[in-house]
Amino acid sequence: MTSIAIVGPGAIGGTLAAWLSQDKRFEIALCARTPLVDLVVETPQGTLRATPTVWTDPAQAKLVDWVLIATKTYSADTTRPWLERLVGPQTRVAIIQNGVEQVRLFEHMVPAERLVPVMINLPAARSAPGRIVQSRDGIIAVPSGANGEDFAALFDHTNIAAKAHADFVSQLWVKLCGNCASIVPALTLRATGPVWSADMEAIVRALAEECAAVGRAEGAEIAQSVVESTVAAMQGMKEGSVGGSIHADRLAGNPMEVDARNGVIVRLGEKHGIPTPANRMLVTLLAASASPWVQATEAR
Ligand SMILES: NC(=O)C1=CN([C@@H]2O[C@H](COP(=O)(O)OP(=O)(O)OC[C@H]3O[C@@H](n4cnc5c(N)ncnc54)[C@H](OP(=O)(O)O)[C@@H]3O)[C@@H](O)[C@H]2O)C=CC1
Ligand SMILES: CC(C)(CO)C(=O)C(=O)O
């Protein structure tokens, strides 16, 4: 039996827990901040129900084979009490978060050789504790090597396509090129499609171009088509739709991952001498309009 603890059973953590709970090889525990009883996840393949063990206090937790961290990036340090109880000498820790800094955010808490950064493309939203809608099939990318391949194999009996990639850095940055543009609906609080204009296109294009330039400087391969698909996605965003989890968080009055999704482009741009005026401006405006809920830059 492989033991798996999922820290942060929100939209992503709850969805992954529901899928993995269908596999009898696994013993699943949820490490929750807000208590929950069970999981009911609507997926494109139907409804998944699961009743994994729920721990709400790190004192209840024990050593496990795998820890899956699925909190927001800004909660990274709050997972330390869980990690202290869950991680033994053999435990591997997968960081399932947006952005490109999964390792940086956790390497002061877990030895880097046992960290697995994960890129996940799986739209999910939580309406109540344990109640989640997964709206499209999921894709997971991890770095090649034993840890990445073992992590991907956990999803063998699920409908999530998990794969190890030699060029994992490109997987992260390509996703960020799409995600960084969602700062626009998070700021304007409405879909971009109905208010599309040449000026709006210039802003979205600049956000994605800056991300691509910084990503390339970080070693990622990013085709121009990635920028074009970001522009097309924002142009096609329909009235009333939510532009990803950062927009959903702003609507719900939650903190936003603005540093992980846009601030990082500014920070790493500075490191490489690449100007990022569009990302810098929108990060500043979002921080100003959403304050005190938004952190323009994370402490670490
Ligand atoms: N939602 C989506 O469609 C996608 C999200 N992502 C990324 O996945 C990551 C997770 O996002 P998402 O699932 O949407 O976020 P949610 O806010 O839905 O879930 C985060 C969960 O973490 C819990 N949490 C926070 N701190 C702790 C802690 N110290 N101990 C235990 N639990 C904790 C929260 O608790 P509580 O229940 O109290 O809120 C919540 O259940 C983010 O980086 C996001 O960008 C990536 C792809 C798609
Ligand atoms: C765009 C999406 C839903 C893709 O998984 C995402 O990453 C997010 O909103 O955080």
Layout of secondary structure:
Layout: E1 2-7, H1 11-21, E2 26-31, E3 39-43, E4 46-50, E5 53-55, E6 66-69, H2 80-86, E7 92-96, H3 102-106, E8 115-121, E9 124-128, E10 131-134, E11 139-143, H4 146-153, E12 161-165, H5 168-179, H6 183-188, H7 198-217, H8 224-235, H9 244-252, H10 258-272, H11 277-290
Helix pairs in contact: 5-7, 5-8, 7-8, 7-10, 10-11
This protein binds NADPH dihydro-nicotinamide-adenine-dinucleotide phosphate and ketopantoate (KPL).
Principal-axis shape? globular
Order of helices and strands: EHEEEEEHEHEEEEHEHHHHHHH
Q: Give a list of the ligands.
A: NADPH dihydro-nicotinamide-adenine-dinucleotide phosphate, ketopantoate
Instruction: Give the amount of beta strand, in percent.
Output: 15-25%
Describe, in plain words, how this protein is organized in 3D.
This protein is α/β, with parallel strands linked by helices and 300 residues long. The protein contains eleven helices and twelve strands. It has an eight-stranded mixed sheet, sandwiched between helices. A four-stranded mixed sheet has the order 4-3-10-9, with helices on one face. The longest helix has 20 residues, at 198-217. The two termini are 36 Å apart. It binds NADPH dihydro-nicotinamide-adenine-dinucleotide phosphate (NDP) and ketopantoate.
